[in-house]
Every structure is written in C-alpha cells, then in structure tokens.
Specification:
2 strands; DNA binding; 2 domains; 6 helices; single chain; about 120 residues; mainly alpha
C-alpha cells in the first residue's frame, strides 16, 4: 500500500489525527447518541471548545451526524454514521498496538530527548 500524498488510504489516518476525535467516536459508540453536555461529562478532561471543534471535524468528515430536535429549549445530539461505526474495529486494533508498544515508544522518545540535550 502506498501512502503518497495522493493516496486515498491517508484519509483513514487524517480523519482521526486530532487528539480528541477518536475519544468522541468511542464515547458515542459506547453510549449511543449524546448531547454535547453528556459528552463533556462522559469524556472528562475535554474543554467545551475542544469538544465542539472535534464534533465539527467529525461531522465534516462524515463520521458523526448532528441531529437537531425541534423542542423548547432547542436540543441537539450527535450519533455515529455508518462510516463512523466502521472505524471502531481499526481503532480497537490501534488501541491494541498502543497497549503492546506504548512503553517502547515512550522509552525511545526519552532516549532521543536525552541524546538531543
């Protein structure tokens, strides 16, 4: 597989390149469609601005759907699209990789940092 600049496979890496995007996808997958306030509570540690930015990116990329309701007060929730749900298995595989190799990566980063100072 080729990952040159015009390769469509790069889309898979780019759509989850931001820190919170995969966390938002996993949270919606775990709990179903959620309102932004519920996402903030479930995720923890994410600012409202970072959540809003992540939701906009995920919607832009077709991974979540914004679902407004005609109620008073107005309400909106977010649900995974088919494409968003299909990303769960590859994301789980990346999580398994991280579980296995995160310590080695961190050790390499520390060795590199010590060498550079």
């Amino acid at each position: 597989m080729d990952f040159t600049s015009d390769c469509r496979a790069r889309v898979a890496f780019e759509v989850l390149a931001h820190r919170w995007d995969s966390v938002v996808v996993f949270t919606i997958a775990a709990y179903g469609p959620l309102r932004p306030a519920a996402l903030l509570t479930r995720i923890g540690g994410i600012s409202p601005k970072a959540l809003n930015d992540a939701l906009r990116r995920l919607e832009y990329n077709g991974l979540v759907e914004r679902r407004p309701f005609r109620e008073t007060p107005p309400r909106v929730d977010y649900a995974l699209t088919e494409a968003g749900g299909a990303l769960l298995e590859p994301m789980r595989m990346m999580g398994a990789w991280a579980t296995r190799y995160a310590d080695a990566v961190i050790d390499a980063q520390e060795r590199f940092g010590a060498r550079s100072t």
